[in-house]
Structure formats: structure tokens, C-alpha cells
Design goal:
heterodimer; A: about 110 residues; six-stranded mixed β-sheet; globular; B: mainly beta; about 55% strand
Chain lengths: ~110, ~110
């Protein structure tokens, strides 16, 4: 099946700093999603971004499908950005809806 | 919409007991997913349904696990008998087509 690798595994930032999270995947995909899991465990979908660039406030994401990676940018980080960020792609060895999640990047934003 | 609703939010049970987790998807969504999250294995898909029909149950760990979706607004995940290694957070998610998935708050299961 497809492999998903996220980096860095852990990231500590001072409030106001910018960061870039990376997601590499081992095969072609037509569906990539970024999620944020907050410290209370809730999973929130940030982006559905199979290709191109999208922006939502201080967050933006870019997927370069031909090179099999996606980047999540967080600008002017806030303490509420803390949590774990996951990317997920379909496992085509299975079926279209079978998303494979990376291990995540744990972000801690200090005040 | 209220979002994906799961119940109970916490469940503590003893080994050997039957556990039933419940999920109400977002109205109008035609896909429903059950995930399990543990420290060791991360987030893994157990099973998903399309229009109430199970499509892929390859992630269901054992015959002790079963899932049903009797109608478009309700699904259950049952574990019988439960074992300590089933302790995890179980998430339900729904989506329109294979688009953006929306997750419920999860059920934290502890099997003693």
C-alpha cells in the first residue's frame, strides 16, 4: 500500500512564528487531506487539496502531485494552533475511500 | 447541522463484555467511516460504508468487530467480546462522495 511520511515529527514554536509542515507520499494520488487534532482530541479537516494551493486565513496548503508531496504553512502561529497535524491520502491498494494517515506532526506553540 | 454525533463519549467496560458504539453522520452525506486511534498504530480505518452498504472492511481487526448501517442516519460498531487491547479512541466520520471527511468527537473506550 501507499506510504505516507510527515516531517518534522515534533515542532516547538514561539507565538507569532511561521512554520512549514511536510507530507511525502509514495504513489500518485488524487485526494489529499490535512487535518488538525487539537489537544482535546477533536479532528478538524483543514484542507482537501489533491493539487495546487489553497488558503484559509493564516493557513495555506500546497500539493505538488507530480512530485508526491504536500506542504502546510502556518503563519503568525497562535497557541490555539497547538496539536497534531495529519495528512491523509487514499490507499489505492484498497479502495478510494480508504484514507491512509501519516503519523502526524506535533506542534506546540508557546506564548 | 450539528456535525457528526457519536455516543457514548466515554465507555469503560470489563473484558468479555459487549460494547456498542453509535454514530449519526451529517445529513446528506453518503459515506460513513469508522476509525480507531491508538498511540502504537495511529489512526487506522476500520470500515466504511457508501449509501449504507459496507464497501471496505479490510481494516476490521477480527471477527469480534462488526459494523452496521441500517439507514442513512445511523451506524453502530460492535465489539463482542471486548479485550483490553481494544482500548482506543474510536472515531466516526462522514463525507459527501470521497471528498472532505468530517469527524465526530470520538468515543474513548477502556476495556479493563
Amino acid at each position: 500500500g501507499i506510504q505516507v511520511e510527515q516531517s518534522p515529527p515534533d515542532l516547538i514554536l514561539q507565538e507569532g512564528a511561521n512554520s512549514t509542515l511536510r507530507c511525502n507520499f509514495s504513489d500518485s494520488v488524487n485526494n489529499l487531506q490535512w487535518f488538525h487534532q487539537n489537544p482535546w482530541g477533536q479532528l478538524i479537516n483543514l484542507f482537501y487539496i489533491p493539487s495546487g494551493t489553497k488558503q484559509n486565513g493564516r493557513l495555506s496548503a500546497t500539493t505538488v502531485a507530480t512530485e508526491r508531496y504536500s506542504l502546510l504553512y502556518i503563519s503568525s502561529s497562535q497557541t490555539t494552533d497547538s496539536g497534531v497535524y495529519f495528512c491523509a491520502v487514499p490507499n489505492y491498494g484498497g479502495s478510494q475511500g480508504n484514507l491512509i494517515f501519516g503519523k502526524g506532526t506535533k506542534l506546540s506553540v508557546k506564548p | 447541522d450539528a456535525g457528526v454525533i457519536q455516543s457514548p463519549r466515554h465507555e469503560v467496560t470489563e473484558m468479555g463484555q459487549e460494547v456498542t458504539l453509535r454514530c449519526k453522520p451529517i445529513s446528506g452525506h453518503d459515506y460513513l467511516f469508522w476509525y480507531r486511534q491508538t498511540m502504537m498504530r495511529g489512526l487506522e480505518l476500520l470500515i466504511y460504508f457508501n449509501n449504507n452498504v459496507p464497501i471496505d472492511d479490510s481494516g476490521m481487526p477480527e471477527d469480534r468487530f462488526s459494523a452496521k448501517m441500517p439507514n442513512a442516519s445511523f451506524s453502530t460498531l460492535k465489539i463482542q467480546p471486548s479485550e483490553p487491547r481494544d482500548s482506543a479512541v474510536y472515531f466516526c466520520a462522514s463525507s459527501w462522495s470521497t471528498d472532505t471527511q468530517y469527524f465526530g468527537p470520538g468515543t474513548r473506550l477502556t476495556v479493563l
